[in-house]
Amino acid sequence: MDNKELLQAIRGIIKEELREELAPINNRLDKMDNRLNKMDDRLNKMDSRLDKMDNNIIEINENIKELNKRMDKIEKIVTDIEPKNANRYIEVDGDIKELKADVKIIKEELNKVEIVTSKNCFEIEYLKAVK
Question: Where does the record place the T-SNARE coiled-coil homology domain (predicted)?
Fold first, then answer.
């Protein structure tokens, strides 16, 4: 056997031993690579979910802006209505006071009518008794 053949034989042995020694390491690296791929998939799914959440947040913010605009309009309408309602309240309050006064006068007049009617009934009975 010459040196070249000997060198090739040694290389072959070393390669085989390295393969045997590196096989568990390669297996571990393959497992780690699989785990990293799974983690990458999970991260991609999380990114997708976060993107959807971002879109939902943007939509919610737009809805809030729209609701704020509507609330401002309603607030303006209510602000405009309040003085009108106050004026109506004053008018209605005045009308109620007038009605109370009128009812009081009517009661007083009715009492007078009752008194006069009772006197008339008494006088009619007196006249009937005198005949």
Answer: 12-74
